[in-house]
Fold these 2 entries.
Entry 1:
Amino acid sequence: MSFHLYFLCGLLGGIFGGMGMGGGTLLIPLLTVLCGVDQTAAQGVNLLAFLPMSLIALSVHVKNGLVRREGVLPLVLPAACFSVLGALAASVLPPQLLRKGFGLFLTGLSVSQFSGAVRTLRAEHRKKAAG
């Protein structure tokens, strides 16, 4: 596989990850679809890439005052614990099942984001019409 293609995948995943939108939601499909990487391997590469991405993005967001510290521990502790369970499950599940599950997750996320955008646009339209 071409170095340039992997570089492009890393670039796009890093941009989205840096914005806090989850680089993996883009990186995993790019690796599996464009680069032909197995789903399990793509998820592993994503986790490895996430470490430096998240540390850099977190430091920038903290520096800019965009991170509220209250409530972090109750969020991070269960997430860290259940990430172990998720990793163990991913290591034994068939790649096709992981791929379908990830596709369903992305579909649900897309529907949720689209619905939220439509509600926001409708509310703005109502405000303009009333005012």
Entry 2:
Amino acid sequence: MSRSYSMAYLTANGLDPVAATELAADLGFDQISYRLLPAGPGDKPPPILTDDDLFMRVKSALADTGLTMSDAEMIRLDADTELERFKPFLERIQALGARHILVAGDDTNRARITETYGRLCEMVWDHGLTADLEFMPWTGIRNIADARELVEAASHPAAAILFDCLHFDRSDSTLDEIAAIPRELMNYVQICDGPVPYDPSGVAMMTLGRTARLVPGEGGIDLASIVTRLPADIPISVEVTNMQIVQKTGVRALVQKSLVATKLLVADHLGGDG
């Protein structure tokens, strides 16, 4: 079985999007992710959304390399979210050929965020996109159960759960809950390793996830048990960002090592050719 591999936005470890696209293609990725909206306070993603010249250069890089855009980051749903403001974002990523949007849930009012997420699904579907809800232990959507509750309540073809191995390991979700996720509710999965033990505070987990993930096999997460419970045909997003390692070996070496290790992990525990 031939499987699709995408280079997640964070894996480029700060490269500009054109250079990241060229690197991903050169190393053998099939797809790539870009961040156009901030992931949190202080985050300044490349201005693909507002810089028309950069947008055209990214679009040209995709065409020249043959890569496709897997997903865009990111929409955060909080108590004050106004969905209309995301229209320019949706139009731009649709023009780049994106298929999925990474969505985070910060609103702790379950009734309100359920309603907001349902409306978001309807909105993104009109642009040929899906709204992939990523559970993270420090947010309002903490685990598989929380994400599945919202996704099933939406009951919409755009609704899906985004599964990140790091966040799963830090959550109270179980391996049985992974296996029980219906295939139609998952579009892709993010794979990386992480240190064990770790600081369980929200700030520490968030910082680690954004700056200090590990190459599969070099941390303490039981990735084998996770991967064996994933759908056999699930597309893989390699998400390994580590600023300290990049300072020592360079971006290319880390990204290449991460892709090789991920393919070996998947081949050994999910089948196919990796």
